[in-house]
Design brief:
The chain contains 13 helices and ten strands. It is of the alpha/beta class and 371 residues long. The strands form two sheets. Strands 2-1-3-4-5 form a five-stranded parallel sheet, sandwiched between helices. A five-stranded parallel sheet has the order 7-6-8-9-10, with helices on both faces. β8, α12 and β9 form a beta-alpha-beta unit. It binds 6-O-phosphono-alpha-D-glucopyranose (G6P). The site of 6-O-phosphono-alpha-D-glucopyranose (G6P) has 16 residues, from α4. It is found in: Cytoplasm.
């Protein structure tokens, strides 16, 4: 009913708007009185954590994309190699998993069969398994060595939204915790990142407060046949997630690519008028920002209609953006928590305009309990 949906037309839209609270709740109470990050749920000793020589993140769907985002942060902060793998691929290829491997599973429901089978397989190999999960007492956390719960609250819409943002948040907590316990990052550095994380709920709210342009964009573009999404670094999985949302609920052909990979194939898809979303990293020390601007020019020169997501005050992108979506400022690693949100809203709006059941898309289930 409308009451259950809090006055929104869809659970998905309600859940998109709950994201500031969901992220804040996931961050809550993670520091002890000495401002040390404490993940109470991780009952693996610091000495055991110091022996870990590889992190393998295993998940399906949107949770897999959360893992792809997390890889950038975990490797950067801990200097431990981190692989991310689709759960249904993982156990069938004789993966290298030992007692020094930390397997991290991500699952909103905690019941996804492919992910559960990966947990069982990893434990048989002697690996430690940490679950990142939104559902208390579900099977995956019960069968794991430790769990970090996301506190998104129940997610009803089949297409995951607040699940994703809170999964990224929880993975970042884990990455910082590993860095702290292993000494690759120290008190102040951990506290600095945590302080920035704590500003994210308000920034996500800012994104949500400025969605009128997105609704107009959806009206203009909902008849399109195909949409491309480009990103680099942590913006690349954001592009994948933006494309997945459109496929899931709007049944539109959509693809996400690493922007730098365009010229090696995908640019052949670019034709007059095709909408191309581009996630632009913050302006900063590295060359990433400028590289993405050249990528925008490449598609625009071939007729693409560019929808550019860039941080506010980024004047360099303006000449190449047919539409500009401004994001509050954030570091490169935290930007996915902002850049994903307009893509969720766009998909929700396009699906609504096309007359689809946004909460119950055809052929999909919220939780897939068969392999
Ligand atoms: C299903 C859902 C997706 C979800 C995936 C993983 O396919 O339709 O939205 O991302 O499962 O679900 P999980 O509960 O493991 O995060």
């Amino acid at each position: 009913s409308a009451a259950e949906k809090g006055g929104y037309d869809w659970f998905m839209r309600k859940e998109i708007y709950e994201q500031p609270q969901a992220v804040a709740d996931t961050l809550l109470g993670r520091f002890d009185s000495d401002r040390r990050l404490t993940l109470d749920e991780i009952r693996i000793s610091a000495s055991e954590l110091r022996t870990i020589d590889k992190v393998v993140i295993v998940a399906c769907g949107t949770a897999y994309y959360a893992g792809l985002v997390a890889k950038y942060a975990i490797e950067h902060w801990t200097r431990i190699p981190c692989e991310v793998e689709i759960a249904s691929e993982f156990r069938y290829r004789d993966p290298i998993v030992t007692s020094r491997t930390l397997v991290v599973t991500i699952s909103q429901s905690g019941e996804t069969a492919d992910t559960l089978m990966a947990v069982r397989y990893a434990r048989e190999q002697g690996a430690k398994v940490i679950a990142i999960c939104n559902t208390n007492g579900s099977t995956i956390p019960r069968e794991s060595d430790a769990v970090i719960y996301t506190h998104a609250g129940p997610e009803i819409g089949v297409a995951s939204t607040k699940g994703f943002l809170t999964q990224v948040t929880a993975c970042y907590l884990l990455g910082l915790f590993l860095a702290q316990e292993r000494g690759t990052k120290f008190g102040d550095e951990v506290a600095t990142v945590m302080a920035e994380m704590e500003t994210m709920p308000a920034k996500i709210q800012e994104v949500l407060d400025g969605t009128d342009a997105l609704l107009a964009l959806a009206r203009d573009l909902h008849q399109t046949e195909s949409v491309l999404f480009l990103g680099r670094h942590a913006g690349y999985p954001v592009a994948l997630e933006g494309a997945l949302k459109l496929k899931e609920i709007a049944y539109l052909h959509a693809e996400g690519f690493p922007a730098g990979e365009l010229k090696h194939g995908p640019i052949a898809l670019v034709e007059e008028g095709i909408p191309v979303f581009v996630v632009v990293p913050p302006q900063g020390r590295d060359q990433l920002h400028d590289k993405v601007i050249s990528n925008i020019q490449e598609v625009r020169a071939r007729g693409a209609h560019t929808i550019v997501l860039a941080e506010e005050g980024d004047e360099e992108v303006r000449p190449y953006a047919d539409r500009l979506i401004s994001l509050p400022r954030a570091s490169t690693l935290l930007q996915p928590l902002l850049a994903t949100v307009p893509l969720q809203i766009f998909a929700c709006e396009v699906a609504t305009l096309l007359g689809h059941d946004v909460d119950q898309p055809r052929n999909l289930a919220k939780s897939v309990t068969v392999e």
